[in-house]
Amino acid sequence: MDVQIHISGLNVSYGDKPALRDVSLDIPRNTIFGVIGPANSGKTTLLKCMNRTIDFISSARVTGEVAVDGQNVYRMRNVYQLRRRIGMVFPLPVGLPLSVYDNVAYAPRRAGIHDRHELDELVEKCLRQAVLWDEVKDRLRTLGTRLSGGQQQRLTLARALSHRPEILCLDEFSIAIDPVTTMKIEDVLLELKQSMTIVLVTNLVQQAHRLADSTAFFNDSRLVECGPTQKLFTRPDNPLTLKYVTGVFG
Amino acid sequence: MTELDEAVAVPPERMFVATDFERWKTIKERICHAVLMCTALACVLPVVAILGYLLIKGWPVLSSEFLLTNPRNNLTEGGIWAPLIGTFFLVLASLLIAAPIGVLAGVYLNEYAGDNWVTRIINLGVVNLAGVPSIVHALFGVGAFVLFAHLGRSLLAASCTVAVMTLPVIITSTREALAAVPVSFREACWNMGATRWQTIRTIVLPNSIAGILTGVILQVARAAGETAPILFTGAVLFVPIADQGWESFVPYGPHDRFMALSYHLFTLSTQIRGVRDELLYGTAVVLIGMVLAVNSLSILLRVYLRSRKRW
């Protein structure tokens, strides 16, 4: 198995409140890795450790190892390079107070791409992948903050794809998006799997079932079980997992 | 129908008839409204009264000639050009010192500083600096700039003193303007690998610059009006300056003593005998007019800011 993200013995706490306790797991390259679990079980914290945006939370204490392509992220000098390699979509839709076009072109420009033609192509590609292009192609100059909640969420997705990441982390990406569009994005994710590793945190257990190759179940800041999705959803080792995936608990 | 339903049931014909309780509620609401409006009016009244009184009293001398001629004959005649241009340079110089330092310090404190004891000490310092009386600033200015830095009593020393006085408010207003930009915007940028400075330059500053400028401009009014800090640091009763030509527009060098409008008003009213009342009131009108004009500018800026708010 070609491991892209390797996590071992990861502990995170905010003040004295633990958010992740002794988590160890491997995420294989070019797969969709589902993360499920009730609220407050540490799913978002896990993502924040991967791109080290947890550094911005001053109360957070992190121990253990998170390695991307064999490199421990906590020993990396250039954390910005790491963040560019990981596309991150968090649940609350955020349109930057820039035009739709500039929203998507933000990261490429910071990376030094200023060629008009290249930017145009990249922006269109990302917006198409986020299933937003048809809705905004005639108003690329309007402010990203003026779009509806669901559109802003897809704009966030387009931005996450704009720096051509190798890993895409999605945290409840479909929360503000209608079911039909969600299905279209899910198709795109299956396509993107060819070229990147996708970590899919979701409250929709069925979404993980549909998309994920392997799935991890978190509860009370612990990793309860991790394995191939089919196994986790049909004959899990832990009774708690079975209760959660069948909707008896949580 | 349960017992409870029966107890609160209202016959249809009485549904919209006010009870005594509701009538009393309406009266109370009206009283509150009236009282609150009166207090709001009470705030405006002094401003209108002061302005009106000054305008009526000072009207006879108000003219462009009054503004553009220098004081003569032991300040009892002529206009206010020398103190007016002095105040202009004082404000300009103090802002050139205070605005960059204050704004950048505000950016540091809001965007970079972590929550640790160094930050807390800086915060405490800023808050306390804002509470220091202006006469104490003046004495500090004498010690630090006039004597220690060997600037002597000069325009530069006075500007530095006024800059120190305006600094804490500029820092605080800058921080408030920056804090008004949602954290989620910063996080979105950080997630894309932008550095803190890239985020500040591309997202935070463009969306807070109007608020920052508003804070700075309000300090212009304060710098123009304060008398105490310039009292011992460089303002003097009278400086003979050129009446015409370019020299009358740049009459003071940085090391010269200078005249300032607020100090001029102070000397006219307390230090010199035989000054006509109109001259006094006219000077006050110009000073207060300047302050009001600058404040209006900041209000206009705020209106403009609101009209183009981008989220």
Notes on the protein architecture:
The complex is a heterodimer of chains A (250) and B (311). By secondary structure, chain A is of the alpha/beta class. Chain A has a domain at 3-87 and 159-245: P-loop containing nucleotide triphosphate hydrolases (Rossmann fold, 3-Layer(aba) Sandwich). Helix content of chain A is 37%, strand content 27%. Chain A has 10 helices and 10 strands. Chain A has helices spanning 43-50, 79-85, 100-110, 116-129, 133-136, 149-162, 179-192, 205-211, 229-234, 239-245, and strands spanning 3-14, 17-28, 32-36, 60-68, 71-72, 86-89, 167-171, 197-201, 214-219, 222-228. Chain A has a 6-stranded mixed beta sheet, sandwiched between helices. A 4-stranded antiparallel beta sheet of chain A has the order 2-1-4-5, with helices on one face. In chain A, helix 3 packs across helix 4 and helix 3 (100-110) runs parallel beside helix 6. Chain A is globular. Chain A starts with a strand and ends in a 5-residue tail after the last helix. The model of chain A has no long low-confidence stretch (mean pLDDT 92). With 311 residues, chain B is an all-alpha fold. Chain B folds into 2 domains: 3-59; 64-307, MetI-like (MetI-like fold), CATH 1.10.3720.10. Chain B is built from 13 helices and 2 strands; from the N terminus they run αααββαααααααααα. Chain B has helices at 3-8, 20-58, 64-68, 81-112, 117-131, 134-148, 155-179, 183-191, 196-204, 209-225, 228-231, 261-270, 277-307; strands spanning 71-72, 77-78. A two-stranded antiparallel sheet of chain B has the order 1-2. The radius of gyration of chain B is 27 Å and the shape is extended. Classes of the chains: A alpha/beta (250), B mainly alpha (311).
